[in-house]
Amino acid sequence: MRLHRSTFLTLVRASAAYDLLLTAPFATPWTFAFAHARLSAMNVRLGGTALPDFSPFHVLFACLMGSIVLVWSVLRLHAPSVALGRYDGAGRFLFSAWMAWTLVATGAPLLWLFLVPECCWGVAQWLPVGRTVAQAAGASSTARAPLTSAAPRRSSRGG
Q1: How many domains does the chain have?
Q2: Predicted TM-score of the model (pTM)
Q3: Most buried in the list 58, 106, 118, 144, measured by CB within 10 Å?
Q4: 82-87 long-range Cβ contacts below 8 angstroms, 24+ apart
């Protein structure tokens, strides 16, 4: 199965929007406190125990993660590409590994609500992407440029 490039880029944008919505509450200590209370209550409703309280250092790392994921999400929304989708897929596999580790260590049922979508987004962003007709024609008729040039480039200002 090969995805059309435009379909893949839509997928990259959709995963970014998902991350933006899901991660926004982790961006500040105040929104994180609210989210932590809701997540703890949900874990209890799913049959688990209340989540442990966070110290200021735990909150710092949660907010750092939330902030960087927000920036990463905006980048993928603004300028989606196959490369960014692949990187995001790799990151999702890493996140999934740590979620699975925590699930084994704690048995917290809440983690399933994050782990399953994370794995799905990761797999989706590693699906093969088909080349467009123009790309295929350009690749077959145009030689690749060398990585470096023998002569240094000079600026128009004589530099």
Answers
A1: 1
A2: 0.79
A3: 118
A4: 82/5, 82/8, 82/9, 82/12, 82/129, 84/12, 85/8, 85/9, 85/11, 85/12, 85/15, 85/125, 86/125, 86/126
Looking from the CA of 43 toward its CB, the CA atoms found within 13 Å total 20
For 28, the domain range is 5-130
To the nearest 10 degrees (0 to 180), the angle between helices 112-124 and 82-106 is 150
Q: Which two tokens stand for residue 45?
A: 């409703």
Tokens 């799913």 -> residue? 46
Q: What is the pLDDT of residues 23-73, one digit of tens each?
A: 999 999 999 999 999 999 999 999 999 999 999 999 999 999 999 999 999
